[in-house]
Amino acid sequence: MISMEEPLIKLEKVGKEYGVGAAALTVLDDIELSIDEGEFVGFVGASGSGKTTLMNILGCLDRPTKGKYFLKGDDISSLSDDRLSLIRNLRIGFVFQSFNLIPELTVLENVEVPLFYKKTARKKRKAKCLELLDAVGLSERTTHQPAQLSGGECQRVAIARSLVNEPTVLLADEPTGNLDTRSGAEILKLFHDLHRSGKSILMVTHNLEIAAGLPRVVELRDGRVLSDREQRPAATDGEV
Fold first, then answer.
1. pLDDT beyond 60 at 156
2. CA 45, CA 174: separation in Å to the nearest integer?
3. Closest residue by Cα to residue 191 from 152, 138, 238
C-alpha cells in the first residue's frame, strides 16, 4: 500500500539472534517491512519461520539484536525497558490464543484491568468497559467469570480488553487457534469489523484459509520475508 504519510510501522534490516558466537541462532535476518495505519496484515509461515519472534518485537515484548523498529516515527529499538513497557501498555493491544483472562475476576473486571493500572476513575472506567463489551456482544455477560463462558466469549472479552486503552495497533497471535470453526468465524468477523472501523491489525495465523481472507499477507521462511502480497480477500466476513 502506497502512502505519503509516515508509516505506522517500519522495520529496517531487523535481525534477532539468541546466543553468542558460533552457538548463536539466527531467528530473524534483515527484515524490511512497512505497514501503514489502518492496514490488516496477516503473518504466516511454518513453525520456526520467525513469525512469533517478529510479533514479539512488534509488540515491544522483545527487542531486535540489530536493525531499527519505528512505530509512528519513533525509534522503538533504542528505548529503555521502562519506555518499552509504557509504549506496550498505551499503544499496543494484544489478543492471544489462550485469552489470558484472570479467572477470579468477572468479565467486566477483566476488561477494566488496563484502566485500573492507569488509575482511571472508577465511574469512567466502568462506563468505557461496558461500552466495549456491548460492542463485542457481551453486554449480558458482564458479571460472569471466564469459567462460565464459551471459548468464543472468552476471546471477545480479550478483544474488548485489548481495545480499552485505544491502542495504535492491535496484535493478534493465533486468535482463533483454540476455538471451534463457528466461534473462530465469529471472532474473525469481529476483527474484520474492527478493521473496517479503522483499526490497524497485525495477525499471526497458521490457517491458510484465514490468511486468504486478509487484505495483505506477509509470509516468513527461515527468518526472512519470503513474500509480501496484497490480495483480494476471499472471505472478508470471517468465513473459515
1. yes
2. 12
3. 238
